[in-house]
Design brief:
This protein is mainly alpha-helical. It has helices spanning 9-24, 29-36, 40-47, 55-64, 69-84.
């Protein structure tokens, strides 16, 4: 069995941004799952950069965390840009 491919850098950073916001608000994956209907394991997969969530799923997670979806994406993009040392596409 081959090991899984490394996560996409932007998806990885999106997951980190989501985790950061969630932890700042002291919300568990379990509680976020109950509030959004998104399975706890799927949330964990997003946070590890293993899942590519739909825009609708991201919007539900952002709303439950009381953060603008655009800010969550902007934060992930900034983190990915720092990794690459580029300004990214705007």
């Amino acid at each position: 069995m081959r090991p899984p491919p490394p996560p996409d850098p932007l998806l990885f950073r999106l997951g980190e941004a989501l985790r950061e916001v969630r932890l700042e608000q002291r919300v568990s994956q379990e509680r976020l799952s109950l509030e959004t209907g998104v399975h706890r394991n799927y949330i964990g997969g997003i946070e590890r950069g293993e899942r590519n969530p739909t825009l609708t799923t991201l919007a539900r997670l952002a709303e439950a965390l009381d953060v603008r979806l655009s800010e969550l994406l902007r934060q992930a993009e900034r983190m990915a840009d720092q990794d690459e040392g580029t300004s990214g596409v705007r």
